Amino acid sequence: MQGLSGMMSVTGTPEVSPLRAGFPVADTLGGMAAAFAVAAALVRRERTGSGAYLDVSMLEAALTAMGWVTSNYLITGRPPRPMGNENFTAAPSGTFRTADGYLNIAANRQQQFATLCRLIGRAELLADERFAHPADRKAHRDELRAEIEKGLAERAAGEWEEILADAGVPAARVLSVPDALGLEQLAERDFVRTLPFPDGRGRELRVLGSPFRVDGEPAAATAPPPLLGQHTEQVLAELGYSPQEIDAMKERGAI
Q: Nearest Cα to 115, choosing from 174, 166, 172?
């Protein structure tokens, strides 16, 4: 689906594209679209008493999630191209090298650009004709990147994140998955939960919570997932099978 939707064609740099995302993004988007459709159908049922037949397309969910990539083509007729970590709509807006790692910066507005230049010790960039206006910065994004990274080389990514964010310039480190899961804000929100392992041997099972809260409370799992076949007999009984029929299935190896 990533390939069929065009996602892969705009992911990566011109040298390595097409490139898949490192996780099943189309599957996830399809599931979210389905959940939204179910919620909308439930609201309709509550209001009108009528049910609904839902048809959810993973391909269409992927295309609608691509935002300006698809809308810009439909409106202007210009095919999008892979731009690596750059932001098509603005510059400087992308991923930049610091003293010890990478930092995402989105200095999209003129005031944010001016603040960025001042904080990294490159105020002279504001007088450079190549970077005077947003359109100029997009046209010379490669040169601008090189100049900004000279200033960013003076500090670590974590330091710049705090300095820039505090000054109103959106910025955040590029983290590994383990580092992301260890963020203090996730611990504060109790996002990663620890449950008993379902095999009963006292092991711990760490799982993710829900990305939303209802009335301030997280919608998180309170019990571990079942083992394969753990509830088969219970489900069969609920479907009306007698204990004798279930035993017969077990003897035949059907369950």
A: 166
Token match 């995302």: residue?
21
Alpha helices in 50-140 (DSSP H): 58-65, 68-76, 110-119, 134-139
Alpha helices (H) in the chain, listed in sequence order: 2-5, 25-48, 58-65, 68-76, 110-119, 134-139, 141-152, 157-166, 177-181, 184-188, 232-238, 243-252
Q: What does the pLDDT look like over 117-129, one tens digit per residue? A: 999 999 999 999 9
Q: At what angle do helices 110-119 and 157-166 cross, to 10 degrees?
A: 130
Q: How far apart are CA 139 and CA 4, in angstroms?
A: 30
Beta bridge partners of 94: 105
What lies within 8 Å, CB to CB, of 20 at 6+ separation is 2, 3, 8, 11
Yes or no: say if 137 and 131 are a contact pair by the CB < 8 Å rule: yes
- In the chain, the amino acid numbered 117 is C
For the whole model, what pTM was predicted?
0.82
